[in-house]
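For the sake of transparency, this paper describes our internal protein records without simplification. The remainder of this section carries one protein's record, kept here as part of the documentation:
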Amino acid sequence: MATYKELLAEKAVLESKLEEMREVERGAAVDRIQQLMSEYGLTVDDIVGKRRRGRPAGSKKSAVAKEKSSLPPKYMNPKTGATWSGRGRAPSWLGKNRTRFLIAEA
């Protein structure tokens, strides 16, 4: 039975052979791709396609943008009268105990 160190050495040899074969086959693949590209007059853009940002030309915008409605205030600062709807970043006056500032529903 092989020892741990022997197996590690064998693994290292196999990994180096794998890397060598990968590079050889990779080079052959690149050569084949270049041959086909020149044979058919292709460019990299033909293969990959041009990458554009945003919407494609001719696409329509959304039909109708909904109008944003303001929410009724949920919290109120009794000292200043400032209100907050409960959405977005909480104001500093709110603190940790939000129940003190909660507006009673009618």
